[in-house]
Design goal:
It catalyses: (6S)-5-methyl-5,6,7,8-tetrahydrofolate + NAD(+) = (6R)-5,10-methylene-5,6,7,8-tetrahydrofolate + NADH + H(+). With 294 residues, the chain is of the alpha/beta class. It contains eleven helices and nine strands. The protein has one domain: TIM Barrel. 46% of the residues lie in helices and 14% in strands. Strand 5, helix 6 and strand 6 form a beta-alpha-beta unit. The longest helix is centred in the C-terminal third of the chain and has 21 residues. The structure holds flavin-adenine dinucleotide. The site of flavin-adenine dinucleotide has 23 residues, from strand 3, strand 4, helix 5 and helix 6.
Length: 294
């Protein structure tokens, strides 16, 4: 079976998409519609995030398993260390292997309820994503990805130390990283430079949010700790009361950002789709990343 990193090391830039596990039956229908619509666009892989509660976690495992069994897509499951003992983590990793999921994004997770609250390690759990990478690699033939932060992780005060911590995850066995969303290419490129300066050439994927509504722009920017720069605000804010014009301008901004990154040689672009496929498909088409027959 091919792995995510093999696809990122291919001859051409690729794209990938990220979904949430569905909350209920209606959500599941919407998600599967989006998955089916994107299937024909041949993304390099699709990932499913891992929530904080037990039922949401079960839905991630189930959804990722269905992607393996019912589609032609390559799935990547997310896994978080938060609120899990090592025994439970081993169990989930075993489940992923059993359903045929061999690509895993290893992240620490945030404290449930308040992402900025105090991080409390499970008494029998792990502290950093680096340890989760080590655990997953010990348990089987997995291709492991990790999270990266162009502006530094919100808990880090020192950008260099934060980059060093990212490089530690590669040394622990991660093969690639996906960056938290950002709005200016330079912010991502500086992160890539900092990683390269430490002698690390693992593929780094930019994470891109299709900007379709005023709410997506401000809410997600706040959640991700990614400031909306004046260059983007000045292009979009004027359409705050005109949803159609805002969407069109947002898609322009995201397409230009993605194109700049492709010109700078990124191996692919990872889209945070929020379980919608239309805006992502539009951007991907404009970037010329669709297969000829799609
Ligand atoms: C692409 C992507 C996907 C995500 N998917 C999910 C998801 O599915 N579910 C979810 O709940 N969350 C998800 N997150 C959010 C993520 O869990 C949080 O941002 C979390 O706060 C950080 O996770 P991490 O894996 O980067 O943690 P870590 O790498 O453990 O880093 C956490 C903090 O500790 C510091 N640090 C790391 N290692 C060390 C060390 N050895 N010594 C000292 N300090 C250290 C880092 O600099 C950072 O400040 C995702 C984030 C991204 C970017």
């Amino acid at each position: 079976m091919t792995s995510v990193v093999e696809r990122l090391r291919g001859p051409r830039p690729v794209f990938s998409v990220e979904f949430f596990p569905p909350r209920d039956a209606a959500d599941e229908q919407r998600l599967w519609l989006a998955i089916r619509q994107l299937e024909g666009c041949e993304p390099a892989f699709v990932s499913v995030t891992y929530g904080a509660g037990g039922s949401s976690r079960d839905r991630t495992i189930r959804t990722t398993g269905r992607v393996v069994q019912e589609t032609s897509l390559l799935p990547m499951a997310h896994l978080t260390a938060v609120n899990h003992s090592v025994a439970e983590l081993r169990n989930v990793i075993g489940w992923y292997a059993a359903v045929g999921v061999h690509n895993v994004l290893a992240v620490r997770g945030d404290p449930p309820g308040d992402p900025n609250g105090e991080w409390v390690r499970h008494p029998k759990g792990l502290t950093y994503a680096e340890e989760l990478v080590t655990l997953i690699r010990q348990l089987g033939d997995f291709c492991v990805g990790v999270a990266a932060f162009p502006y530094g992780h919100p808990r880090s005060t020192d950008l260099d130390a934060d980059t060093e911590n990212l490089v530690r995850k590669f040394r622990a066995g991660a093969s690639f990283a996906i960056a938290q969303l950002f709005f200016e290419a330079e912010d991502f490129l500086r992160l890539r430079d900092r990683v390269a300066a430490r002698g690390c050439d693992a593929p780094l994927l930019p994470g891109i949010l299709p900007l379709t509504t005023v709410r997506t722009l401000h809410k997600t920017a706040e959640l991700a700790g990614a400031p909306v720069p004046p260059s983007v605000a000045s292009r979009l804010d004027r359409f705050a009361d005109d949803p159609k014009a805002f969407r069109a301008a947002g898609i322009d901004v995201v397409t230009e950002l993605s194109q700049r990154l492709i010109d700078e040689g990124v191996p692919g672009v990872h889209f945070y789709t929020f379980n919608m496929s239309k805006a992502t498909t539009e951007v991907v088409a404009r970037l010329g990343l669709l297969p000829a027959r799609a």
